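Try it yourself: sequence plus heme C, in.
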Amino acid sequence: MDSVFLNKAAAAGLLSIAVAWICSAVASGFVPANVPVKPAFSVPGAENVSIAPYMAHADADRGEELARQICSSCHALVSAAADGVGPNLASVAGRPIATAAGYAYSSALLAQKEHVWSDQALSDWLTSPARFAPGTRMSFVGISSPEQRADIIAYLHRLAE
Ligand code: HEC
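Structure, out:
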């Protein structure tokens, strides 16, 4: 191996390092290294929405229809009826989370016990149970329409009366 070859090899090595450095310097000018404060996009219906404006126009009758279609396969909707797969929902609105007597809740929901089922909590739960309480046993994908959630929450209030 002669020294000219070694010189060429060293020059090639240095040149590739220089080119890589320049490329990375130029590229970082285009792509900021820090994470954006706001995500560039969000999945529709996956973010928590303030439910109060929707509660003002909620329709408990429509909510009853939806609850019969969607919730009643797992939940009793009449007070004193036995729990189904899920706990009886008769007085759930305004009640502390995971406190129906005699129902064996998941530890995911029991961890939320200090909170109350406010309208907002119910709305966030019904948007995505798995996101509200990761590990919950309520295997339900969620309701993306805030109007429908408000209708159901209004119906749950009527059940609690
Ligand atoms: C596939 C069955 C299933 C469906 C459908 C379902 N739930 Fe549930 N739900 C459950 C289970 C199971 C739990 C208990 C979850 C736990 O312990 O993690 C639960 C818990 C709840 C709780 C908490 C109760 C408490 O005492 O803290 C509320 C509120 C609730 N569901 C509302 C609803 C509503 C409203 C619907 C209809 C839109 C619905 N669920 C549909 C199975 C279901």
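One thing you can check immediately is this: The helical segments are 3-30, 52-55, 60-70, 107-110, 119-127, 129-132, 146-160.
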